[in-house]
Amino acid sequence: MTKSPATNKHVQKKKKGSTGASFDNLELFLLHLPTTIWYLIFCYAPMFGVVIAFKNYKPKPGKSFLWALINNSKWAGFDNFKFLFKSSYFETMIKTTVLYNIVFIILGIVIPVTLAVLFNELYSKKLAKTCQTMMFLPHFLSWVVISYFVYAFLATDQGLVNNTIRSMTGATENHNWYRDVNFWMYFLVFLNVWKGMGYNMVVYMASISGIDAELYEAALIDGATKSQQVRYITLPLLRPVISIMFIMAVGSIFRSDFGLFYQATRNSGALVSVTQTIDVYVYKALLEQSNVNLSSAAAFLQSVVGCITIVAANLVVKKIDPEAGLF
Amino acid sequence: MSKKKNSVLKYTRVKPFTNVLISCLFIFLALLCLLPAVLVLIVSFSSESSVRLIGYSYIPRGLSLAAYEYLAKQTGYIGHAFLNSIGITIVGTILGLITTSTMGYALSRPNYRLRSFFTWFIFIPMLFSGGLVASYMINAQILKLKDTYWALILPICCSSFYCIIMRTFFQTTVPDAIIESAKIDGARQIRIFLQIVLPISLPAVATIGLFLTFAYWNDWMMAKYYISGNRHNLFPLQYVLIALEENIDFLTRNQQNMTAGTVSSVPSETVRMAMVVISVVPIACSYPFFQKYFVSGLTIGAVKG
Lengths: 327, 305
Prior knowledge:
The structure holds two protein chains of two kinds.
Chain A lengths: L4 H27 L1 H16 L6 E2 L8 H8 L1 E2 L3 H8 L2 H31 L5 H12 L6 H12 L5 H10 L11 H29 L3 H9 L4 H26 L6 H6 L8 H4 L2 H11 L3 H29 L7
Antiparallel strand pairs in A: 1-2
Chain B lengths: L1 H11 L3 H30 L2 H7 L11 H8 L1 H34 L6 H13 L3 H12 L7 H4 L6 H14 L2 H9 L4 H12 L1 H17 L2 H6 L10 H10 L3 H9 L9 H35 L3
Helix pairs in contact in B: 2-16, 4-16, 5-9, 5-12, 10-11, 12-16, 14-16
């Protein structure tokens, strides 16, 4: 009451201004509220769901999952993990996942980078465009479709490969490719490279086309050969992209492409020793054997180790090149 | 500028012989990617007797449309799966665009007070996830999504990667001045977003829309997790393919259920490949036209956040 009208007005105006800004904040918040709810339900709730790995989950007919988890399942501590570690398939499972991923990471960087560098040297841009489009095709196909492609070649009776062998050598015995572990060991690598080649090539090509042409002109004047240009200009400038792709790949070293290992191999029992990655195991244990305890322990391990590796990879890359980190 | 580039090109080019070698390499790789698809296409048009006689081959002994004629008769079943796939793709793409663009827009506003909090909020799931078991339990047991269309749509409709692409696009291409002037004119954020930001961001919307469309059309994992084997009316095309793989006479058995048709006349070998062709054709025919959006999406996504 003691305030003069002028200051009162000033205060009011200021207040109006600040509510305008908070309205702005509120509106933006309401705008992405549905997305926030989606994240809470589909990303954050499962994070708390990892407690299943420390429980001895026992479902009870007629009762909900939460009731069974809280009231009917005893805390198991690390029992699920101990059981998992002791099981005979654990070592193979980890070995398969990690070894394949190491091969995939190396080939997934070396081959696309090489191709992207070579691709830019093609004289005919028309040929380049056509080839790129064709090489992009596998990326747009699902593993289910690819499993049929593979089947058309490898089917025991009608497959193209066996037919060709039969007609060329006159052999009457058909080779059962879906039971051939040695073949699939390498064929899985081929399939993975084949599907990702076109896509990954484009990632590196986009950054190569962003390199300033004057750098190459300067190098040319200095008498640098083509291979020297690649070595001293292209590759160093590609390093940030390569390191981001590397961190992402290392971060998922405990994950595997379920489609590749389960679907493309038609879930062949004979191939288990090369196809049972952690993802395949978790799927089989959960949905085929209903073994919630072991599968949740394996899934938990995968998540935690994945999180540690991505943070570690980022740290290491940042130490070498402070600019190159992902976060 | 381009003239200058061309004259320089003469000197920077590789030797003609090297060019021939590289061309051959790329033609080889391109064929390696294309020929398997061609084989499946040819098999689907082969006659059943040719497949029985010489197996799957690039040069069949006889051509026939029997597989497609058979599928055309199965409209009740195949048509349903086709419609399922289309419906899921449309609804999923729209929902995905809504969720990613709103979040991307909010995170692109420099004055938004919760900006850094929500940037972390969408970034953390990229580092750590609950894993399959926890997600499955929540989706199937708590949300009761099992054997519903929503199970095929909701779990994959949003992703941090898409949100970040959207945010980066809004940040780099939508001038702040436009939004500020709209605000001075008294427009609310929702109106600014719908009437100003979205219309000038169509390239980003198209890119993410395409990512989502292809992801939904190709998705089979959600169906494998959440759809029981006997709920045929919920199957998308990709899951029909899986069912055919696991059970050769899946289609014939279904035909028996529906009509008392002659089962023996089913060209089962070629029908499967025809199904593959049907599910691939929409993609294979459309992606060459949309390729540039994919490339632009990748380039935006490569900008670190």
